[in-house]
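Researcher: First entry.
Model:
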Amino acid sequence: MAARENTVTYENTRLADYTYDNSIERGSIDLPFALLTLLLLTVGVVMVLSASFARAYYDPSGTTNGNATYYFVRQALFALCGVGVMFVCSRFPMGFYRRISGIVMMASVALLALVLVPGIGEKANNARRWINLGFTTFQPSEITKIAVILFFSVLICNFKEKMKTIRYGILPFVVILGGICLLLVMEPHMSAIIIILAIGMVMLFLGGLPLYWFVGGGLGVGALLGIGYALFPYVRDRFYAWLNPFADASGDGYQIVQSLYSIGSGGLLGLGLGNSRQKYLYLPEEHNDFIFSVICEELGFIGAMLILTLFALLIIRGFWLSMHARDRYSALVGAGITTHLAMQVILNVAVCTNSIPCTGISLPLFSYGGTALLLQMAELGIVLSISRDVAEKR
């Protein structure tokens, strides 16, 4: 009888916004989601080793000191730390993330402003996007993505009956996104702007904003891209390279041409793990933004599709857990994180195959980058926290 009463209490709180009954024991993490994450992470670390050892060995800057495993060792260490971060994040209840969402948002905006300060923000390729921590660098925009998901979920739950009004359903979100985008334009960082705007629009859609507002939002994003095209020469160069990369195969189109060579060389079964040719200093960013091209070259079409299938299963499972979440806030956060993961995978593959203009979008769990990997694992840990409260598991 007591078990039945607990079940009734649980079901009554499932659709509430902020009902966290501490008397309800949390379950275990979702095993399929965790195993898919660990499998993709393991394959990703192996591919970093395969893709990076040539550049690490021949690095003319002297950063690696000729150590062919330089990038692999660092990525493996961050991956181990990331697993710990994921399981730690899965232990905190969703009420904790709701309480700190405002702090995370303010901290992310402060870091975006701080990166613009000379001497603090590190400049590379005519852009100031990184803060140097000494042992590594990180992009504050990565924190901003999860901050938008957490904080927008709070606002949507607070304004759930008023989301169709301009004052509550439009204005607060536009002000926040506008301020973030302004700081990102000053870096500049167009790829982060695109992802953050897309995350914001998805969150508003999930929050129940009428569809006609998204028409205006789409026009606004188009206008923003037009402004970026007019103001920033590197944006124009990337559009030209996208439309006809072979017109300047040794200049602006060089990166995407080498990526297409890499993908085309793989064929059906690939050249074999470790046998990529393009990674020998032909393909830029081969262990970072263009690691998917090396995957296609070494593992072929079949290997690349298997990896994309694993990503698809992870994304589907994430949405399933969000749909069965205990409360509305958890459902919004889970759907937002899963959408973010899906967007990065789709956009990265689209860039490598020249389906869209080249942007600096990494492949989650695969591309080299320590702090980005830690934040991705933290996000997946939050989804695992949501899975602990899924009623159907009990």
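Researcher: Second entry.
Model:
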Amino acid sequence: MAQAKKNLSKALASVDVVVEVLDARMPAASANPLFEELRKERQRPALKVLNKADLADPHVTEEWVRYFLDPTSLASALPIVGKSKQEARKIIQQCQRLAPHRTDAIKPLRLIVTGVPNVGKSTILNGLLGQAKAKAADEPAVTKRIARYEVSDQLIIYDSPGVMWPKVDTVETGLLLAVNNAIGVNAYNIEDAAIFLIQKMLERYPEALLDRYKIELEGIDAVAFIESIGDKRGMRSKGGYVDFERASQLVVTDYRHGRFGRVSLQIVNDLI
């Protein structure tokens, strides 16, 4: 972690704007505190890219955009749904507003794209690079783990590796990261993740569960709901009991693939 912090700090000395890619369904949980700490130390503006916005509740996403808007620290947010040229232009235009002094070949706009694993950082980066034959170049002040791409005379992009912080601050943040596949499978229990997911869905999007599984929700809790899914799908162990682990994996997979519709597991009020 100390080496990653050192590498990122060096890279930030060479850039104008930090583009941090977040999962729109859990923006705060997918934000690495290290990125925010270092960019403020270097006094660099930040664009929070709310990736996978097409999977998130649009009303909740609007609230997150307002939350991240901070003129005092030059921060803003932008919902993104993919790697199209149009979406990439939105990112670049927003970054240009944050660094208006970097506009030409003499002073090209320099961005660094950051994000924790599995938030879609590579998708965003590929969209920004587009069809330009970007070339990686050595940079004396940047370690080999951080790539540098000369996209055009007006744009240079640095790509930092996905970095997690050393200790997750709360159990809920850890479960959000688990449900959204941002941490390895050996770091969490799939049954705990599924129970957490269904609890959130029952609280905020019960109709989505009803549409997906056609199971009566009256008086049911998360554990009973998952057991009902396992029973309905014939997921049974050798002893004839419902295979709770398989049913748990099913609901988490359905969520990750967007089969619940547009839902957000984290809202701004969760931080209050």
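Model: Note on the second entry: Residues 190-204 form the longest helix (15 residues).
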